[in-house]
Amino acid sequence: MENQQHQGRNGAAAAAPTAENRFSVLNCIDLSSPDTQNSVSLLKQACLDCGFFYVVNHGISQEFMAEVFAQSKKFFELPAKEKMKVLRNEKHRGYTPELDELLDPENQVHGDYKEGYYIGVEVPEDDPEAEKPFYGPNVWPSSEVLPGWRETMEKFHQQALEVARAVARIIALALDLEADFFDKPEMLGHPIAVMRLLHYGGQVSDPSKGLYGAGAHSDYGLITLLATDDVYGLQVRIRVNLRYLTSESNWFVRLVGIDLNFLQICKNKDAQPQVWEYVAPMQGAFVVNLGDMLERWSNCIFKSTLHRVLGNGQERYSIAYFAEPSHDCLVECLPTCKSEKNPPKFPPITCSTYLSQRYKDTHADLSVYNQKQQHT
Ligand SMILES: O=C(O)CCC(=O)C(=O)O
Ligand SMILES: [Fe+2]
Question: Coiled-coil stretches, from where to where (predicted)?
Fold first, then answer.
């Protein structure tokens, strides 16, 4: 790409890219558009190209989004002791401290520099469904400490699920399926839908030292909706190299790049070396990415995409909404994605088995925290 201001296909602005600072131009799906064919074609193009796209006019108001971020900030600002009272449980509900999650063990020296909070589908303890690995009651901070917090998060959870369902209908059409394919009870009818509040504390990442805000990974489910707080322009930190030359007075300042506190994606996970591009936040939009289950369902026609977050020393808040089907859903090659020449690449697997393994692989064992508490 040449070094100039770029305009995305649908108005997504992209800043001047350099070798170190390249922006991805993503398609933008307008959920209020009556032109379904156009939406399907934009989404399909995005899924074939990079597995990432923006979704706008999704029905969640910016005011409400701001309220969710404000409440999220309030939680992460609580003293560590207060946050540890709602430490995540074995159902993946509640608080995840910094370093809890290790997404890219090959390249990271320790877990991610981010803390989080998982909120899933609320299933009362006495409901037989609560026995399922990803179902049960949520863990909530006390309403005396954070009034209205639970209500705000529950409302967002419900609204985001409707957005995920709307996007899934367009995905279904793009895969030549009936529009309501993913609406079935075993799919997003009774989903494992998990939202996760995230906070990056302001540490500087350094890939050469294996330090990341969030290590490179692809998400596990059908799709992820991502909302970020940094929507009011680029927050940049100019990186300079100070180099001592020959005499005392000859300090040499070299601009080596700018660090952005953004999500980065790698469009081709098989390419070496990997090429990383920034995704600029778009006000009011969700950044949507395809998960690994959709890659399996679609027999790799739609690939999940590697992404990561590099911290630049500034705080960052984001909210990820992971849309996954029901526990018992058998994720197997879709009829429209296989042929004699292109047989299924993956064996069928239930969503519950697949997800349990992925969470186990990436999260600290809870016994670590029990041991820590005994020693304090
Ligand atoms: O915080 C972000 O922007 C990305 C988070 C993410 O990729 C994840 O939690 O899966
Ligand atoms: Fe992710």
Answer: none
Task: Give the separation between CA 168 and CA 176, rounded to whole angstroms.
Answer: 12
Read off the CATH number of the domain in which 208 is found. 2.60.120.330
Helix, strand, or coil (residue 163): helix
Phi, then psi, of 318 in degrees rounded to 5: -145, 165
**H or E stretch including 44?**
helix 36-49
Tell me the residue range of the domain where 129 lies. Answer: 5-374
pTM of the model: 0.87
Q: Is residue 216 within 6 Å of ligand 1 at its C-beta?
A: no
Q: Is 219 in the pocket of ligand 1 (CB under 6 A)?
A: yes
The C-alpha torsion from 167 through 173 and 179 to 181, rounded to 10°, is -90
* Structural domains counted in the chain: 1
DSSP tally for the chain: helices H, then strands E:
7, 18
The CA 22 to ligand 2 mean position distance, Å, reads 20
Distance CA 71, CA 274 (A): 36
Segment 138-167, tens digit of pLDDT: 999 999 999 999 999 999 999 999 999 999
Give tens-digit pLDDT for 355-367: 999 988 888 788 8
Ligand 1 geometric centre to CA of 322 (Å): 10
- Nearest-angstrom CA–CA distance, 295 and 121: 24
**Amino acid of residue 220:** Y
Q: What are the angstrom distances between the C-alpha of 167 and each of 146, 179, 274?
A: 32, 10, 29
Distance from the alpha carbon of residue 355 to the mean position of ligand 2, in angstroms: 14
Nearest to 308 by CA among 104, 69, 126: 104
DSSP assigned state of 182: G
**How far is residue 103 CA from its own chain's centroid?**
12
Ligand 1: nearest atom to the Cα of 219:
10
Residue type, 302: F
Pairing mode, if any, of strands 52-56 and 28-30? parallel
